[in-house]
Amino acid sequence: MFKAELIESKARLRSAADDPTRNLSACPALVLNADYTPLSYYPLSLWPWQTAIKAVFLDRVTIVESYEREVHSPNLDMAVPSVIALKQYVKHSEFPAFTRFNLFLRDRFACQYCGSPDTLTFDHVIPRRLGGKTTWENIATACAPCNMKKGGRTPKQAHMTLQSAPIRPTSWQLQQYGKSFPPNHLHETWRDWLYWDIELEA
Ligand SMILES: [Zn+2]
């Protein structure tokens, strides 16, 4: 009897904690482009529920799927959108911005010398003192120990090999890499719009 009660109360607690409909802040909308592909895979394009609803009223998005949770105002009851699609197609620029995040993403968040995912830094492949520039083609992700070991030398001088030559990626390439990093939480209504290639392999 006691055990049954315990199990029941645990189950209640768990469902309360897991149930996103209890907490609006846990109800972001997945944002799709006008072609119904995600605007961005990584970070996944998510808008807070307020932004999503505002966009609905501004007629900028179509509601594709909704949470069971509703929001109420004097004039309106509305299900919180879980997937929305932009009405106007956003064209990605061909090349992504040269940012720390995009550089790590190009290198899959791994040291390009040893593959470690820890203590990542940026390495000037040709050191600055030898005229190396801060560009896509001359910066590689390196863990702190490898960066330290390499010091102010070229990879050849340091007898270290880059796993891949640093290149300027296209936006399409970065999007593809981003698919390898699905977020921890995926609402069930998002699954149809994401990672179908991964789902098929499962
Ligand atoms: Zn390393």
Summarize the structure.
By secondary structure, the protein is of the alpha+beta class.
Structure description:
- The chain is α+β, with helices and mostly antiparallel strands and 202 residues long.
- It folds into 2 domains: 25-90, no CATH class; 92-180, DNA Binding (I), subunit A.
- The chain is 29% helix and 20% strand.
- The protein is built from 7 helices and 6 strands.
- A hairpin with a 2-residue loop joins β3 and β4.
- The radius of gyration is 23 Å and the shape is elongated.
- The structure holds zinc ion.
- The site of zinc ion has 8 residues, from β6 and α4.
Name a few traits of the molecule.
alpha+beta, binds zinc ion, four-stranded mixed beta sheet, 202 residues, elongated, 2 domains, 29% helix, single chain
Q: Topology of this protein?
A:
Layout: H1 2-18, E1 29-32, E2 46-47, H2 49-57, E3 61-73, E4 76-86, H3 100-106, E5 120-124, E6 139-143, H4 144-150, H5 155-158, H6 171-178, H7 196-201
Parallel strand pairs: 1-4
Antiparallel strand pairs: 1-2, 3-4, 5-6
The chain binds zinc ion.
